[in-house]
Design brief:
By secondary structure, this protein is α+β, with helices and mostly antiparallel strands. The chain has three domains: about 1-110 and about 140-230, no CATH class; about 250-345, Signal transduction histidine kinase, dimerisation/phosphotransfer (DHp) domain (Helix Hairpins), CATH 1.10.287; about 345-495, Heat Shock Protein 90, CATH 3.30.565. The protein is built from eleven helices and 13 strands. The chain has helices at about 5-10, 10-60, 125-135, 195-245, 260-310, 315-340, 350-360, 385-400, 450, 455-465, 490-495; strands at about 80-85, 90, 95-100, 145-160, 165-180, 180-190, 350, 370-375, 380, 405-410, 415-420, 470-475, 480-490. The strands form three sheets. The chain has a six-stranded antiparallel sheet with strand order 2-1-6-5-4-3. It is rod-shaped and about 155 Å long. The model is unreliable at about 115-145 and about 445-450 (pLDDT under 50).
Length: about 500
């Protein structure tokens, strides 16, 4: 069984957990928004019903209808209170038993004082006439408006018990100003039971549906990620097998998709191919180096053994030559090792013309004359490594030249150019890249003493690349080979 730590450490588990958490947060936020919106809408609807009921009663009060003759809602969803400016309850719904939230807890109306002005027991004909015109009728019977209803409505929440049923209500308070009865306040309630029922139903649905939806999301994410990561498991398994077998010729399977995992597989195979090439190159290098070292060492040993047995037969010059060859080969191998390790060339400024002139002046054993056509130009890099490049190119030209070797320096835009040309047989076009490989000698008939170990041009190319330049070969105007070294000028590098 997989341990919990490993389970939750997998990409599939983390993806599933992450997706589930995101969906859960989104569902909680959406659910809360829906519930709040539903609650607010239903509350507004209850408030609208309460406001409508309050204004109906207010219009009756403005019309002058008596308190005991008000047409109040008789259902339990709309309790009504009418309160005067003294805070006395002057009218209320018949079945109202208890109320809170309106500021007036009374449920039974208190008889209001008479609003008619008092006068003499008997009046004159004029008073009777006035009474006949305006006093004998009930207020409002004439249809004239006796006050006004305030346009603003104040809302509060509370509870009420109507006909034995208690519920929550949204109360609307409407102010009424009348001439005969002063200022009145009408409280009417809108039941919130539908709000509570709807919110409770929605909440129950969410509590049931959200976990199911989360389970579906988690399951789908788990299956999708498992399917998506299946090639990764195959790549991991194959890489483990390659590591165990040390067989770099094997490759990981590449899925038939065009996603990141397919790109990972392709990159892995490219890395394996490059690693295989590097290892094979290293093995060939070690084998060739061993072979090249064996010859001078064997020759030197033979000469020393002969000299030990017969001192008069010791070939001192030959021993010295073999020692020099061995020393040069060891130096070349050491430089190649440093270049392969990524040794930085440094940033010293070198005047290429002065540098070439100085290096050529130290050559005293050249087979043919070296001519120079030098133009001052600067490069940045390792003077010792550049000296090795120049020496290798001139040595190569000396081996193949018939009568002349020419060294030229010049500026070419952002590049400093060093050219070494000879008038020999040249290099065939199809071999011009191969000669820069290590331990490659095109003339197999040459002796090792004449041809060297085949490392000079490889070292020159590697040094050129490490300095940010190039080294190529092409045909010289005289028919031989022309090696062109291009190095960036310091001004170009600074830019």
């Amino acid at each position: 069984m997989r341990k919990p730590g490993k389970l939750f450490g997998s990409v599939r588990a983390r993806a599933t957990l992450g997706a589930s958490l995101v969906v859960a947060l989104a569902l909680v936020a959406a659910g809360a928004a829906v519930l709040l919106s539903l609650r607010a809408n239903l509350t507004d609807q209850a408030g609208s019903r309460a406001d409508s009921a309050a204004r109906k009663v207010a219009s009756q009060l403005v019309a002058g209808r008596p308190y005991d003759d008000l047409d109040l809602p008789d259902d339990e969803d709309s309790p009504v209170q009418v309160v005067d400016d003294k805070g006395r309850l002057v009218a209320a719904s018949d079945d109202l038993q208890k109320i809170s939230g309106t500021g007036v807890d009374a449920v039974k109306p208190v008889p209001a004082p008479s609003t008619r002005p008092s006068g003499p027991a008997s009046g004159g004909a004029d008073e009777k006439d006035e009474a006949g015109e305006s006093g004998d009728d009930e207020p409002g019977d004439s249809g004239d408006e006796l006050g006004e209803v305030d346009d603003e409505t104040t809302y509060t929440d509370g509870t009420a018990t109507v006909d034995g049923e208690s519920a929550d209500f949204r109360f609307a308070a409407v102010e009424v100003s009348t001439e005969a009865r002063g200022d009145l306040t009408v409280y009417a309630g809108g039941s919130l039971s539908s709000r509570q029922s709807a919110v409770s139903t929605a909440l129950t649905s969410m509590l049931i549906g959200f976990p199911l939806l989360l389970a579906v999301v988690a399951g789908v994410t788990w299956l999708v990620t498992r399917r998506a990561l299946r090639p990764v498991a195959a790549i991991t398994e194959e890489m483990a097998a390659i590591t165990a077998s040390e067989d770099l010729a094997r490759r990981v399977p590449e899925p038939d998709t065009h996603d990141e995992i397919a790109g990972l597989a392709r990159t892995t195979n490219e890395t394996l191919a490059a690693l295989q090439t590097s290892v094979e190159r290293q093995r060939r290098f070690v084998a060739d180096a061993s072979h090249e070292l064996r010859s001078p060492i064997a020759s030197l040993r033979t000469q020393l053994e002969v000299g030990a047995a017969h001192p008069e037969l010791l070939d001192v010059d030959g021993a010295v030559e073999d020692t020099v060859r061995l020393q040069e080969l060891a130096a070349d191998l050491l430089l190649l090792a440093r270049l392969d390790a990524g040794e930085k060339p440094g940033g010293a400024r070198v005047d290429l013309a002065a540098f070439v002139r100085e290096e050529l002046s130290q050559r005293t054993r050249d087979r043919v004359e070296v001519q120079a056509d030098l133009t001052s130009c600067e490069v940045a890099g390792s003077r010792a490594q550049l000296a090795r490049v120049l020496g290798n190119l001139v040595n190569n030209a000396q081996r193949h030249a018939r009568s002349r070797v020419t060294v030229t320096t010049r500026n070419d835009g952002a590049w400093a150019v060093l050219e070494v040309a000879d008038d020999g047989s040249g290099v065939p076009a199809d071999e011009r890249e191969r000669i820069f490989e290590r331990f490659v000698r095109l003339d197999d008939a040459r002796t090792r003493d004449e041809g060297g170990a085949g490392l000079g041009l490889a070292i020159a190319r590697d040094v050129a690349v490490r300095h940010g330049g190039t080294l190529v070969v092409r045909a010289a105007p005289s028919g031989g080979a022309l090696f062109e070294l291009r190095l960036p000028s310091p001004q170009s590098s600074a830019d």
